[in-house]
Write a structure and sequence with these properties.
alpha/beta; mini-chromosome maintenance (MCM) complex, chain A, domain 1; OB fold (Dihydrolipoamide Acetyltransferase, E2P); five-stranded mixed beta barrel; five-stranded parallel sheet; elongated; WH_MCM3_C; nucleus; MCM_dom
Amino acid sequence: MMDDERTRLQLDIQRQYVEFLDDSNDSKVYTKKIEGMIRKKETRVIININDLRQRFPIRCNELLKNGFDELPMVMKALREVVATIDSEYAKENEEFFVGFEGSFGTKHVTPRSLTSTYLGNMVCVEGIVTKCSIIRPKVVRSVHYCPATKKTMERRYADLTNFDVFPSVNMYPTKDEDGNLLETEYGLSKYRDHQTLTIQEMPEKAPTGQLPRSVDVIVDNDLVDQCKPGDRVLVVGVHRCLPGKQNGFTNGVFKTILLANQITMMSKDANLDITRSDISECRKFSKTFNPFEVLARSLAPTIHGHEYIKKAVLCLLLGGVEKILPNGTRLRGDINVLLIGDPSVAKSQMLRYVSNVAPRVVMTTGRGSSGVGLTAAVTTDMETGDRRLEAGAMVLADRGIVCIDEFDKMSDADRTAIHEVMEQGRVTIAKAGIHARLNARTAVLAAANPVYGRYDEYKSPMDNIGLQDSLLSRFDLLFIVLDVAEPDLDRAISEHVLRIHRYRNPAEQDGEATPLFQKDQTLSTQDMEKEKLENTEPTSVYEKHNELLHGPAGRGRNRKDKILSMEFMKKYIHIAKCVKPKLTSEAAKIIADEYASLRSRNLEEDHMARTQPITARSLETMIRLATAHARARMSKDVTKEDALVAIELVQFAYFKRVLEKEKRKRKQRDEEDEEMDVEEESPADEGEERGENGDDSRRSKRSKKDASREDDPYDLPTEENETLAELKKKASGTSQSQDSMDVDAPEEGSISDERYGQFKTRLSVLFTNEREESLSVDKIFEFMGKPPQDFNRNEINGGLKRMEDDEKIFRAEGFIFLV
């Protein structure tokens, strides 16, 4: 009796769904959809759940609440409607499927909020695909033939992922009831495609400090191969638990999965709430004087200085124009920037600001990232043993930005893995029988420290950077950021930092913890916000001035410029990226001339050195920067002005002055000291010098200093030095010998500290030139006694003795060995 009542109830529910789908006498929306499905030879129809909510609200609530029981009746109703339209097509296909779209309300969740309360419900989960298994066939019906009895039998299979039947025994028959062997007729058997996906919550929506959550999704039939790792999707399906058995027992912890019935691809570009008034404000701002400078000044206003770096980051956010030529060649439009410099120069803060402004950013660090973690990896499923393709950070950030901090801490092998991504914009995998290409069209913003921890200005930029040329050439701009000690600059920075620390958010309350994560969530698979956006207030263009954030306003010439609001900057950059500027012939000529000039520039004349190699990629860099500047003006053409700004950025980033320890300055100081000695040691002042003990001590110290400077092996004699020495001898007469007596003469085998340092340097040069680990004592005495060294025997013996005491050398049988 209860079964009859249940059957009658199911037929009543099925009749309601048939009435909903068969709207030939009404709007004919779903009738046309079903006819289109038949015409395209498909088996799935997409139903808008909002339409079902309007006509049958009870059925809509039951479908969301108990989707596992309702879906079989919807599919039977669809098959009945298809049979009335085309009976032949209904006979050809055993199953027809439905997918749902629309607003799911509280059932629109993320992998983190998908809890046990949603088991059995139909939910919509948004996330990013991180893993994809190989598509495998799953047997639905097997046909077997018995040669002994000449009979044929078939068996159907069902598991917990099937809706309309109970799970069956999964044992594959090999014998019939009488023990006769069976042969499988593979041509008559039926299979369906089966694939497993892993959906992870969005990186920008994951709470800070917590691991991202994920959920497994099972897709069958026509839904397989609809997405790949790195795609952002909305998956509509039934939340179901699968009990697992171990040794015949089942524990109380079940694995939960999502049985998908519809997969919707989310846009690669983030959807901002842009209204008509916002577009008009952006166009109005683009017509103002030099909008590029205003945008760059408004970028990271809490960071003092770094004007050129802010301009480069703005170009990175705007990007160039990507082109794919007819022969398949891809010219990337993404701009890559590398910041190298001393600690505490706001490199990481710049990366953090970009992660807040850009719509899609993946943050990572060099120490915590590997090559496969940045690109893609092939993993093995622990349950099924299948190979899976797992997306890395750069694949997840497709059409976005990857920020890599501590870039120098990565190993060379891991840095080599991103070469293809930075230029070609894709990841090619050929491992474990899997050959795949994943899109990774992303811009890279990296920060690193020099090789020595701090930048050495007396070494070339290449020695300080310590990265391969093949990697450096893929960065469009490389900035060297130095911590320069200047009193005025230090005072300005200190005032700026102190103002920032005094600032407090007006909305912050005492005793209330600052929320770590705030994000609006879309509760629909469709764009339901268009009508609502028309009534929203326009976004404010400029920020309200705050003395703690922006400094004192000032008056007249000292008046501070206005700062754009972050919300307006996001919308302006989003709209500007839609512009596709074209390169004019005038701008192309300027860029070509500058490229030829950069290649032929003589850097030795002005003591400049290149920060990175200048290759043909440098030419594309100037084109991309000029295009980004044109986008900032919302111009359809790249003009001469855009090309000049790009050239200015390139010249600032490509060259760095290398300081030298100039010898001429030291010689001038020696000459000045000698001239002072000539005046002080004149006969007129001789009596006064001898009359005061203090003057004698100062004179003796100066004599020691002069003696050491005269014997400096790096100070080669010049004509001026020789002339001054002769004048000194003539003017001083016998005073030199008397002064030398005042100086404490070195004892047997002793050497002064300054001369000892010179001695070690010259001895190291001798061993390096001879390319030997041991030299005879006679050869060392001969070399050290020659000009310009002029070390006497006492100094040589003293130097060798001190080096032997310091365990730098070892003396044995007339030879000196380096330790």
